[in-house]
Each structure stands twice: as structure tokens, then as C-alpha cells.
Amino acid sequence: MADTTVARPIDPEVIAQVAQVATAAKAASRKLAQLTRSAKDELLVAIADALVAAIPQIVAANAEDLARGRDKGLAPGLLDRLMLDEGRIAAIADAVRDVAGLPDPVGEVVRGSTLANGLQIRQVRVPMGVLGMIYEARPNVTVDAAALALKSGNAVVLRGGSAAGSSNRAIVDAMGAVLTAQGLDPAAVSLLDQGGHDDARALMTARGLVDLVIPRGGADLIATVVRESTVPVIETGTGVNHVYVDVGADLDEALAIVLNSKTHRTSVCNAAETMLVHAAVAAAFLPKVLAALGSAGVTVHSGPEVAPYAEAAGAAHAMAGEGDFDKEWYSLDLGVRIVPDLDAAMEHIARHGTMHTEVIVTRDRAAARRFQAEVDAAVVVVNASSRFTDGGEFGFGAEIGISTQKLHARGPMALPELTTTKWLVEGDGQVRV
Amino acid sequence: MADTTVARPIDPEVIAQVAQVATAAKAASRKLAQLTRSAKDELLVAIADALVAAIPQIVAANAEDLARGRDKGLAPGLLDRLMLDEGRIAAIADAVRDVAGLPDPVGEVVRGSTLANGLQIRQVRVPMGVLGMIYEARPNVTVDAAALALKSGNAVVLRGGSAAGSSNRAIVDAMGAVLTAQGLDPAAVSLLDQGGHDDARALMTARGLVDLVIPRGGADLIATVVRESTVPVIETGTGVNHVYVDVGADLDEALAIVLNSKTHRTSVCNAAETMLVHAAVAAAFLPKVLAALGSAGVTVHSGPEVAPYAEAAGAAHAMAGEGDFDKEWYSLDLGVRIVPDLDAAMEHIARHGTMHTEVIVTRDRAAARRFQAEVDAAVVVVNASSRFTDGGEFGFGAEIGISTQKLHARGPMALPELTTTKWLVEGDGQVRV
Predict the structure, then answer these.
(1) Which residues make up the CATH 3.40.309.10 domain(s) of chain A?
(2) Interface test with A, best of B23, B343, B430 (most A CBs within 10 A)
(3) Looking at this predicted complex, what is its ipTM?
(4) Residues A21, A24, A25, A26: what is their CA dihedral angle, to the nearest 10 degrees?
(5) N or C: which end of chain B has fewer CB within 10 A?
């Protein structure tokens, strides 16, 4: 609903700095938009080579970040996401080569026709222009985002988490040297690391210079972007996802799907956060699934109706507090609720879900069809793990994020989603009568 | 760039009223999303019939609006846009029947595949949910927007210009009676007319209730929406469009295209506002084109280099002031500039255009190709009038606006642009390994 908070003004010096960077990126984007596919692919391969050649410098810069992070008491999980070594950098470079191998979305004719008056119209894919990426302290995203931006003919302004500042600078310098060597403007891949928090805020209000902002991060970042951004935005990555075990479920299948959705990887947006179980199968299913979840180290959060099952199954249990069913745990925690029927399950999902990925386990065709038709989410799954919501799994070859909004892109976003279209109209003097 | 203006808070009572309307619309949208195409088409035909049956009431309500408008000294052009008579209402009803005849975008399978593990994935079109329309005092838009929303399975909250308040109320009441008669919730087509300006502001911040806001109107409205909206927006309708007459132009063709682009209809966003003429053809072209424009009643706005041509041709002339080349005249006024070459023309367009429609007149293939490749606009035209940027002309059958943004929709927007997509995934127990 309407937010009437008055935000602290952005530092005018930061606004000016970011405007300068974005203006340079915009100028660079004009040339990128005209590059052929082979020129872009050569550029990406050269960037991959340069990253491998720069391993000593990047690892040294990363060591600075890690030392600072340890001093600040960064959690082990975050330090691990931040860490780069020779193997990881080589893998990142390989991912850039993979992007070079993907089809070029630019120039694709989406549709077209010849009008009655002879006018020929064609809708073709063209680059957006300048992308703004706001993300956490994950240096691999710096490379992924740059590679996807360049392949789709866009310039990119990167604003990564400050904890990765030295690593990002070393990586962007290595990429900039390649751009320069190929006669391109290094401003095509720009890094903001001078203005702290205001860097991100200035980026999301650089209207007319930045064509699209993609925030990746937690609920706080998304809220700031929604409130403050004047540049068009694609929201990504908050997933409060549910697995609903229907009365018609194969319970062995359900167990495997719940376990995989929750425990396969917990720090990702396509993990499950809540299991909903139809009341008619609760007594048969909960003992087995809670025992399995308990063995996997999962803590169950629920109301009193589930607590005795958890206790009997030997699973850690906590009473669900207010807001627990709206939480993205990013950990071995799972909300559990017994629901009287399919409608109650869908009602819970409508209230607590984030329109990311919703799963039903059932052999009942009617229940599956209703769930897919009525649940409002980017991905609605029947009888499979929530973890499949992923650009790589869907066969897109690469992914810049998972959109949870309805405009422009929904679900896994890859290269085509980083483009817009343009109508080309060709006539020989037609006027309207 | 960053706007640090602090807006006046929205009246909390209006926020609550609008939230109530939007909540009801959201509930209504769930049922609309599941309607079959035939149910929707029957609904639209019944609405068309009801509008015709309500002609006496609508004309009477419109007479109140017109009387108020005359008292307030509304310009004749605006009064004409506001006026409804039997013929106009019949035409509006026919347009609703036309929408019933268009293909239903909902349910279209956009793409799909079977993954290596046997998972079947399909991306299908689904309704957005609730659309918010903010527009001028044009009662025909009330009907058009409702018809397009319903056909695409969406509910709509309408906020029309207050000068059309009585007409809009009569129209929405007539549509509401049909919705009720067909067992649907009349909240599916809701009108905001209680809260003045704050109605629009509350609508654009009703996040989570409204899925998409489409503002139609002048630069002020667009600026407010960009600054304040927290709901995703599609900007429409500001067109500072150029016709560039290249050195390679057929000058007779150029004359017809310039005349049609400027004078065919001046109150529309796809009219031309500026003519750019290559210096090498200025002496040959300007006398003819300015004479023709002068005869059509056009006033030429330019720098001193064009003034003598205008005088000699007998065209009204005014020296172009600051900002005149950024103005959407909506009238028989045209900016004129002589440019040294194609690059200067594209540079002028990049600085002053609004990414709507840009036209080049040339027989030079290389110039045409460069113009189409490098000009960043929704529609880039070679050798035809700017007036063809129109959903009807493009063969879409109907149009809710012309998007000048890059996200989601660009150029004329019709039914498919009022939908989003959903990925449906079907498995038989697949989990990630």
C-alpha cells in the first residue's frame, strides 16, 4: 500500500558521479547495440581468457575482501559466497564462454506482416541500452551480469555488495582492458563503488540514462527499489514457495519432493519454505516426512496441531510465530501446516506466497488442473521439486535472475529478457487517408 | 535524473477507499481469469447491447458534464472529446463487439519443451489481474479500456478525468448491471470518482492489489506516475516525433509524408512535431513544403536560418524558443530545423525525441538502414507517415495505448500486452540431483 515515508535525500555528489558513469555507459551502449554476433562472441572469449590470466590479481584482491569480511565477523556462508580461488575463477570464465555459445537474441524478428496498403512492418529484438545491476557480495555475479549484458548488446552499470569491493574492481579492470583492446569503450562495463548506499539509490533514479534496473537481494533492497526507483525495474529473487501435498498424492513421491525442495540447497530462492498437507493424509504422511526432514537437520515451524507429529518423529520443532509463514528462511527451517482442502491450500498460498514457485503433489487430475489454473505464480509445478525453477534447468543456458513480477519477464530470465523490441516500418510514400 | 521533491501525503481516507475498491476488483479478477472465451465474448456483446439501451441515460449524464465544462470554459476541442450522442455511443458499442470478435490471448502457449529428465514445461498467457487506467475526460476510453480488460480476463479500476464524471458513472453503471446479470461481480469494472487527484495517486500506490497501471495523458501525469507509483507502470502516449527529410529523399514523397504526419490529425501522439531537413535539399524542398504547410494553416517554429523560407512561402512563423523542440504541440505548429547530415538528424532525435515514432524519407538504402538500426524508438519508419503508429493500423484490432517505454510492451499495445505469462511444469516425481 501507499508508503508515505520520506527518504533521506541522496548525496548530490553521488548523484553527479553516478550520472557521469551512466552517461558514459549510455554512449558505450550505442556502439554495442550495432556489434555483430561474432564480434560479441570474440569479445566474450577474450574476456574469459583475460579473467584466467588475471587469476593472481583477482585472488589477491579477493584475499583483501575476505580479510575485511573476517574482521567484520561475516557469517561463514557469506564468506564462502565471497571466496574466489583458481578453480572458481576458471569456472566463472567457462561460464562466459558458455554465454558466447548461446544464440544472439538481438535482431530476432518476433513478428511481422504486410499491411493492406503495402506497408511492411516487423517487430525486431534490440538491446535495452544500459542495465543497472544491484546485487550482493558475490563476485561471480559481476562476471555473469557483464557477460549476459554484452551478449545482448547492452552496457551495464554494476553495483555489487561492498564486501566484494576489491574483487569486483579487479574483475572489472580485467574486463575493461579487453574492451579497450577491442576498440570498445570500457564504460560498457562500469562499477559503482564510491558512494556507499547512495550509489544504488542514484542508480535507480538515473532516469533517461539507465534503461532497466535489476535488483537481486533481500526484501529490504526490493522495498527500497519499489519505493524510490524511477527507472523501470524487474524484481527478482524472493521466493516464499510452498509444496502442497494433496489428498491424492503419492506419498513416497511427496516425501522425495518435499525433501529435495527444502534441503537440496537452502540459500536459494527456489527452495521451499512451507509444506502444506491435506488433513486426510496428515496422519499417514507427517510421521514419515518429518522423520526424514528431521534426519536431514530441518527444524519444523508449525502450530500446535503438527507439534506432536514432530516430537514423535524426532524432528526439531518450534512454534510458528507471527510472520513465520511469510519468511524466506534461507536455512534448514520449514513451516508446516495442515489444511482442510485444496481451496485452503490455495488461499494460504495467495496470502503468503511471493508468486515465485508453487508445487502440488497429487495424482488427481482435477486437483492438478485447478492448482495450475488458479495459483498466481511465475512457475506452478505438478509432481516435481521447486528447485527446477532455474534458467539452466529450463534450458536457457544462463540466467540473470528469476522475476517475480508480471511485467516484461516472469520466472527465469535469460538473454531475450534483456532486450526490448522496435517496430521497423518500410513504405514507399504511404500516408493515412 | 533523481527527483528529491517531497510530495504532499495522500489523504488516508482516499487510500482506504481505493484499497477497498481494488480489493474487490482483485477478488472479481480471480473469477474473470477462469472464464472461457465464449463466456467473455457473450459478456462483451451484452455490454454493447446494454450501452445502446442506456443511450438516453448516458446522453443525459453527458449533458451535465458538457454544461459543467462550458461553465468552466473548457476548450472546444476538449468539449468535443467529451461529447456523446446517439451516434457516438452506437459506435462505441460497435467497438465493444469488435473486441468480442478478436482472438483471446489467454491460454496461448508461448513456448514449451520437454526437459532431459522428462519434465514438461509450457509458458502460457494468463491475465495480469487488476489493471489501473488513469486517463483524460474521454468517456469512450472508459468503454474501450473495460472491454479490453474483460476480454483479456482482467478486472479494471478506472480513473477518468473528472470533467467526464457523470458520463463515466452512467457508463460504468450500465456495464455493472450486465456483470451482475451474468453472475459476475460488478467490481470487475470499477470507477474511482470520489477522491479527486488523490484517487489517481492512491491507485498507483495500491501495490499488491493493482497489477499494472497505464497512465494516458500529458507530461505532468507521466511525471507524477514515474515519481510516485509503486505499482508497475506502462507509460504511454507522449510523442515528440520527427520526420527527417534526407539528402536522398524523393521530395514529392517527402512533402506528402510531412503534410500527413503534421496535419492529418493534430491532437494525437503519433503526429509529427518537428521536421528535420538535410542542408543539401533545403533550398529545393523548403519553399514547396512550407508553402503547403502554410496553406494548411501550420505555424512554423524555427531558428533564423529557416525564417526567410517561411516568409517567402507565406507560412506563419515564430522564432523557436528554448524547449520548443521538446514540445508536443497537439496543434498546427511544427518545429523545423536544417541539419548538416544524417548523424546530426539522429543526434537531434536522440536529444529531443520521446522514443515514440521517428521517420526518415530517403531512397538511399544505407541511410535508411542506419536510421532504422541506430534510432532508439518504438517505431522507426522509412518513407511513410508517422500516423501509422496505431494498433488499428498495425492490424491488432484494438489498442489500449502506445507504449513509449522499453519494458514489457513497446509501441501499439493490444490484448496480448494486457496479459502476463505463467510457467506450467508437469512431472512424475522429478527431483534435482
Answers:
(1) 241-390
(2) B430
(3) 0.93
(4) 120
(5) C
User: Per DSSP, which regions of B354-403 are E strands?
Assistant: 357-361, 379-384, 401-403
Check: CB of residue B333 under 8 Å from CB of residue B310: no
pLDDT tens by residue, A24-52: 999 999 999 999 999 999 999 999 999 99
Q: Name the CATH topology of B241-393.
A: Aldehyde Dehydrogenase; Chain A, domain 2 (3.40.309)
- Beta-carbon contacts of A70 under 8 Å, excluding residues fewer than 6 positions away, are A79
Per-residue pLDDT reduced to its tens digit, B77-109: 889 989 999 999 999 999 999 999 999 999 999
Give A234's contacts in chain B (Cβ within 8 Å).
Answer: 407
| pTM for this prediction | 0.93
Mean pLDDT of A140-164: 96
Chain B's closest residue to A128, CA to CA, is B406
Render pLDDT for B150-208 as a digit per residue (tens, 0 to 9): 999 999 999 999 999 999 999 999 999 999 999 999 999 999 988 788 999 999 999 99
Going by C-beta distance under 8 Å and a sequence separation of 6 or more, which residues neighbour residue B73? none
Residues of chain A with CATH 3.40.605.10: 12-235+409-425
User: What distance lies between CA B37 and its chain's CA centroid?
Assistant: 25
Mean of the pLDDT values across residues A143-148?
96
Topology adopted by domain B12-235+409-425: Aldehyde Dehydrogenase; Chain A, domain 1 (3.40.605)
**Burial environment of residue A217 by CB neighbours within 10 A (0 to 12, 13 to 18, 19 or more):** middle
- Chain B neighbors of A432, CB-CB under 8 A: 260, 264, 385, 387-388, 393
Name the class of domain A241-390.
alpha beta
